[in-house]
Amino acid sequence: MLNAIMENAGTILVSLLLLGAVTGVIVKLYRDKKKGKSSCGCNCGCCPMAGACHKQS
User: Fold this and answer.
1) Taking the chain (57 residues) in consecutive chunks of 10 residues, what is each chunk's mean pLDDT?
2) What is the pLDDT, as a whole number, of residue 25?
3) CA of 24: how far to CAs of 3, 17, 19, 53, 57, in Å?
4) Cβ 29 vs Cβ 39: under 8 Å
5) What span, in angstroms and rounded, lies between the C-alpha atoms of 29 and 16?
6) Which residue in 31, 35, 11, 33 sits closest to 23, CA to CA?
7) How far apart are CA 43 and CA 46, in angstroms?
8) Any idea what DSSP says for residue 44?
9) Is there a contact between 49 and 41 (Cβ–Cβ < 8 Å)?
10) pTM above threshold 0.90
């Protein structure tokens, strides 16, 4: 068992780093959404989806 882990240590390390990065991005997006922040740049004049992502006032 230990031999298999040692042989694949590089793959395991890269996988853990990628998992941590993806988890960090998801947590950041979740926290921003709870705070009411948008993930877009909010330049709706240039956006073809301007009427779909923000409520009209």
Assistant:
1) 94 98 95 79 70 62
2) 95
3) 31, 11, 9, 24, 33
4) yes
5) 20
6) 31
7) 6
8) G
9) no
10) no
The separation between CA 5 and the C-alpha centre of its own chain, rounded to angstroms, equals 29
* Cβ–Cβ < 8 Å for 2, 9: no
Write out the two tokens for 56.
């009209």
Tokens representing 47? 């956006």
Supply 27's token pair: 């947590």
3-state secondary structure of 8: coil
* Residue 17 backbone phi and psi in degrees, to 5: -65, -45
Contact predicate 47/40, CB 8 Å? yes
